[in-house]
Specification:
AbiEii, 7 strands, Nucleotidyl transferase AbiEii/AbiGii toxin family protein, 5-stranded mixed sheet, two-stranded antiparallel sheet, alpha+beta, 2 domains, about 280 residues
Length: about 280
Amino acid sequence: MKYDDIPPSVRSLEQRIRNLEKDAGLVQRRRIAMALVVVSQMLPEGAVKGGSAMALRYGRNTRFTRDLDAARVKSMEKFRSDFESSLAYGWAGFTGRLVKKSPPKPAGIPSAYVMQPFEVKLDYKGRSWCTVSFELGHNEIGDTDDPEYRISKELVELFAELGLENPKPVPVMRSGHQIAQKLHAVSSPGSDRARDLVDLQLLVSAEEDLDFSQVATTCSRLFRYRKQQSWPPTISSGKDWPQLYEEAAQELDVLPTVHEALAWTNNLISQITSASENSL
């Protein structure tokens, strides 16, 4: 089923989503996936990062995420002002409001590295539709410079089927920077990010033009910049990782157990460091 006309109201939009998806869980997943894309169409200069960048790259062939993460180029004040203006202007019948939230204060993490959380309250045709959790970081080591512009055909089709305007490709953090950030996160002391083991497998398998010597340089720079753990790390299992990994890996083409994923990731680190040594 495909609609040829634009949904005239939020009620019509929701009914069309239900008609296409049938199952309540799939309706919710489609709404959230679409909402992340809608917000990404109105972002100021910067790059989408994290799981949301994975979703924009690969559509439903990655972990389901409810949050949109981005890194800014300009100051927080300038980004926020530009974003609020863009949300008010809108895209394809959608508009929004930005609500600032209190940032977390994780022990041992410098405040400069903590993402600033917001909520984006989205409307369609002037009526409330969906709320997106949005987190904003800064340009650490040039990770927002020269982003890739990506959006999966699957995500575009979610809009086309409903009679909506096709979303345009979105600036996402380059895969080498994503790999570095995920290796840093998963190797942090006390990390609960077994999900990054899933994301790393998906990134490496999908990005055929990865230059591991460049990835090694990026990893080394990021680890030095953040001044927490040293590069290269050895990844070991944390608390509840088997269950966390199993949940993150559901229905995805990745290794079945966390133990296999850990071995794969540590081998990846060895490949990256070897590429760096061979390039000297």
